[in-house]
Amino acid sequence: MESTQQLQQKAREVQERLEPQIEGAKRGLSDLNTRIKAFVRERPGVCLFGALALGFVVGRIASRR
């Protein structure tokens, strides 16, 4: 059985390996969020129509069950 110190060391190693990937994902999602907000502000009608269409499709799928 592994000691607590060994498990803590492995956890630190995993954290160090994953941290750059997590930071990159955070930056990417932040950029995507900014772009989506800008799109919605520029084209609110298109977004509203898209939301209505998506709601209609989801409603049709859900009503079949």
Structural write-up:
Helices cover 91% and strands 0% of the residues. The chain has 65 residues and is mostly helical. The protein has one domain. Helix 1 (4-42) packs across helix 2 (44-63). It is elongated. It starts with a helix and ends with a helix. The model has no long low-confidence stretch (mean pLDDT 94).
Oligomer class: single chain
> Largest beta sheet, briefly?
none
Total DSSP E strands: 0
The low-confidence parts are: none
Average residue pLDDT? 94
Separation of the first and last Cα atoms: 50 Å
Secondary-structure content class: mainly alpha
- C-alpha Rg (nearest Å): 22 Å
Helical coverage, percent range: over 70%
Portion in strands = under 5%
Per DSSP, the total helix count is 2
Summarize the structure.
The chain is built from two helices and no strands. With 65 residues, it is mainly α.
Topology:
Elements: H1 4-42, H2 44-63
Helix pairs in contact: 1-2
Brief descriptors of the model:
single chain, 65 residues, mainly alpha, 0% strand
